[in-house]
Amino acid sequence: MKYSFLTLISAGAILFASCQSKSQTANSADQDSTVKTVEKTGTPVDVSKIKVADAKTILARKQVPILCYHQVRNWRPTDGKVGKDYIVEIQNFKDQMKMLADSGYHTILPDQLYAYLNTGAALPSKPIMLTFDDTDMDQFTVVRPTLQKLGYKAVYFIMTVSIGRKGKFVDYMTKEQIKQLSDEGNVIGSHTYDHKNFKKYAGKDWEEQLDKPTKKLEEITGKKMTEFAYPFGLWNAEGIPELKKRGFRMAYQLSTKRDEKDPLFTIRRIIASGYWSPKTLSNSIKNSF
């Protein structure tokens, strides 16, 4: 799911082909009005005593829109047609965020989503989750100040092989910057060591792609890793027990159908395309969720 990452290992190669962005109509659901509403982003939610609901209950709840971003920078002449789908230009990103704010969207974080899906805990009006994959430096230098001005928080899925690296075409966030994002109330999640296809894990892959990255991110942030994003959005049911054993609470794919047995580990996101205007993004959110 990552153009910029591959510049570390293969110049000009593009690793986006497996990403899927087909929309799926959401199920409708009622919220439990007896549960206190979380009024604003980042309001602490005690999830320690929440019992996981049955899959049918979770699937019945209306899906919360979740956007997936990668690079936020201006296009270069060397960027290909496919690559541009994953690169949102800076002003367009700012305009997209302004559209969300002007439209009344409130960002939520994983604790709020977890409470809602399992207990029906009420959410702010027009909830949305913003997620950013792959550790790109522009997520700190461009995304962070843009979201701060709007009072928005986000989830950053970190690929640990990239931390602190400087590439020919892109730089990556340092440990200190990742910790700062976490300390400022954003959520850090795992996105494996080097973006290897989750469906192909076997043997030591579980240690290399899950255990070591989890330990590193927990050392950086001082917080337990509970969220995981599948590379390319690709997942299989056989691997979900491995995530559960390691204490992950939710896992995020892209736009395929959620698993009927483990919907918490197949939460849907849509990629915010670099070709989309704010209006197109608005329509895509409404049509996809």
Automatic annotation (TrEMBL):
Q: Which CDD domains match?
A: CE4_NodB_like_5s_6s
Q: Which Pfam families match?
A: Polysacc_deac_1
Record GO terms (molecular function)? hydrolase activity
Subcellular location per the Swiss-Prot or TrEMBL entry: Secreted
Q: Does the keyword Signal apply?
A: yes
* Superkingdom to which the source organism belongs: Bacteria
Q: Which InterPro entries match?
A: Glyco_hydro/deAcase_b/a-brl, NODB_dom, Polysacch_Deacetylase
Q: Which residues form the NodB homology domain?
A: 126-289
Give the EC number(s) listed in the UniProt record: 3.-.-.-
Keyword annotations from UniProtKB, A to Z? Hydrolase, Signal
Enzyme class, one word? Answer: hydrolase
Q: Which PANTHER family match?
A: POLY-BETA-1,6-N-ACETYL-D-GLUCOSAMINE N-DEACETYLASE, PTHR34216
> What name appears for this protein in its UniProt entry?
Polysaccharide deacetylase family protein
Q: What lineage is on file?
A: Bacteria, Pseudomonadati, Bacteroidota, Sphingobacteriia, Sphingobacteriales
